[in-house]
Hints:
Elements: E1 5-6, E2 18-19, H1 20-25, E3 31-34, E4 52-57, H2 64-74, E5 80-85, H3 92-97, E6 102-105, H4 111-119, H5 135-139
Parallel strand pairs: 2-3, 3-4, 4-5, 5-6
Antiparallel strand pairs: 1-6
Amino acid sequence: MAELLRFRDDAVPAEPAVTVDAFVEQSNALAVRIEPGDDARKLIPFLDRLRLVEVNFPVFGDGRGYSAARILREHGYSGEMRAVGDVLVDQIAYLQRCGFDAFEPDEPLAAEDVEKALARFPQAYQQTTDGRIPIWDLRHGTAHG
């Protein structure tokens, strides 16, 4: 059984997530699962209705899920964004910066290791979707918070 690490307090639907194509065709679903190769942009017209987006990482080296999360967050998705599959502790901080707030790895992660990974880089150099102000903005006094 996969372990679920959630960094939000609100509940998500208990129903299973459907595929992107099924979601687009099935107007009453609240949860969707994005597989590698799926076009996350198909979900943009439905973001106000979605409560859960699962993004599958079948192998740790497949980074397409990072882009899917970022696209949806930048278009206003505010529900739970869950990384599932071959999610490693070394990826957690980067996944969070792209908008993931829940993780369901195939292999359990030690809570201590997750905490260390999230604390490792307190500043970000790129714009993020997690609300952190990039360090260059802080350095040059252009931060708006």
